[in-house]
Amino acid sequence: MSKESSAGSISKLIEMLVATGKNYDIEKIRNAADYAGELHAGQFRVSGEPYISHPIAVAEIVASLELDTNSICAALLHDTVEDCSDKTNLKEIEKRFGAEVAMLVDGLTKLVPLYIEDKEEAHIENLRKMLLAMSKDVRVIFIKLCDRLHNMRTLAVKPDPKRRSTALETMHVYAPLAHRLGMQKIKQELENLCISYLDPIGYAEVQTYIQEKYGESVDFIDGVTALVDKTLRDNNIKFALKGRIKSAYSIYRKMYNQNKSFDQIYDFYAMRIIVDTELECYTALGLIHEMFKSIPGRFKDYISTLKPNMYRSLHTTVIGKDGIPFEVQIRTWEMHHVAEYGIAAHWKYKSGEKSKEDMDKKLEWISGLLKRKTEPRIPMSSLMPSKRISFTTRPSFSLPREMCLRFLRGRRL
Ligand code: MN
Predict the structure, then answer these.
(1) How far, in Å, is the centroid of ligand 1 from the Cα of 87?
(2) Cα→Cα distances 152→93, 155, 168, Å
(3) CA-CA distance, 130 to 152, in Å (whole number)?
(4) Which residues have CB atoms below 5 A from the ion given as ligand 1?
(5) Which residues are catalytic, by number?
(6) Closest CA to 383 of 225, 192, 198
(7) Using a CB cutoff of 8 Å and minimum separation of 24, what contacts does 372-380 make?
(8) Structural domains in the chain?
(9) In this predicted model, what pLDDT tens digit does every residue of 289-312 receive, in sequence order?
(10) pLDDT tens across 166-188, in order?
(11) From ligand 1's centre to the CA of 83, what distance in Å?
(12) 247 C-alpha to center of ligand 1: Å?
């Protein structure tokens, strides 16, 4: 990048941060970005882009999780100590940006999982625990996940063996970690990207099915959302409503793991209703069950019994027009935020400084989360670009942005 265009992408990041209206230390962030730009000058990514474009993109993802100034600075500097050791070191980072940023960068520098493809599942689990143990501060894990997400988004330019090993490592270590931390958005994007690299043909097939069904999907979702919209309005509930189809990854999983044909995936459609209060969740549920016939055994109350990763919502599957079933998730805005960002939601910038004790308590709790017995994962041997994959069977049905069928009613999601 010429000096100007590097400066350009830095000012774009700064503009974005200012636009959030949050109380960031913009001066400090700008200094970190300029310093990182200086250190990475002359380095390029495989794509030919200047290297600094990567830490800036990571910082943007970190900011989207609403993490604090120091996390953004650490994201900007995360590759400097390793890749520019002739020009800087942790002492220098500490001198310029303080002990906390240096501690985060140090954690990120050391966080290199020793992934070996043919090791056992137990090894993977240990790896995940190790990742946690190695990071004194959970923000290190958040930033590492953002780093991985950007690397996955830009993996296509890498040669095939590298693509495959990075995607496998992501599938085995980072996507489950994101899930464990309740970060659905990141988890789902990672999973979709993994499949697109590991089994491009299967992934393309799923995409084709989704495309072919698009017109039909729009009609169906539009029909049921209009119905639900009217009923909720008539009952004076303030809500946001979004109809969508399941993620490519979860459709893929059903087709290749459970051997279902595309037409047999009966929870292809989903709807999310977001309301203000817990009570309204149950009211909305009652209304949904009055409007549509529900499928027995498909109702889950994750509000009264929350999942270990803090996920809370009501789930039910009902039968819509022409006997087509669809899943409905009902939650409050707060639950929605936690569902999307997981424990990162607790590190929101406005929450201010955490005391050491508070932090220790939180970390203890997270480490407990990660120690829980995990769901079965994909056997290593099965992850070939072919059809036999046994993934976990958790219900999940979010889509990357471009694939969402958006039918927003009421407030914006
Ligand atoms: Mn990186």
Answers:
(1) 18
(2) 27, 5, 11
(3) 22
(4) 79, 147
(5) 82-83
(6) 198
(7) 372/180, 372/308, 374/125, 374/176, 374/180, 377/121, 377/124, 377/172, 377/176, 378/171, 378/172, 379/121, 380/117, 380/118, 380/119, 380/121, 380/172
(8) 3-199 (1.10.3210.10), 203-354+391-410 (3.30.460.10)
(9) 999 999 998 899 999 987 877 889
(10) 998 898 888 888 887 788 889 99
(11) 10
(12) 26
Residues 6+ apart with CB under 8 A from 248: 192, 195, 196, 203, 206, 207, 210, 399, 400, 403
Query: For residue 323, what are its two tokens?
Result: 């006997």
- Assess whether pLDDT exceeds 90 at residue 264: no
The CA–CA distances, whole Å, from 78 to 109, 128, 135, 151, 153 equal 7, 20, 14, 13, 18
More confident residue, 215 or 319: 319
Helices (H), 87-159: 90-97, 99-110, 121-134, 138-153
Q: How far is the CA of 166 from the centre of ligand 1 (A)?
A: 13
Residue 39, amino acid: L
What is the predicted pLDDT for the residue at 240? 93
Which letter does DSSP use for residue 400 in this model? -
Rounded to the nearest angstrom, the distance between the alpha carbon of 164 and the centre of ligand 1 is 18
Distance 127 CA to ligand 1 centre (A): 19
Tell me how far apart the terminal alpha carbons of the chain are, to the nearest angstrom. 36
Interval between CA 147 and ligand 1 midpoint (Å): 5
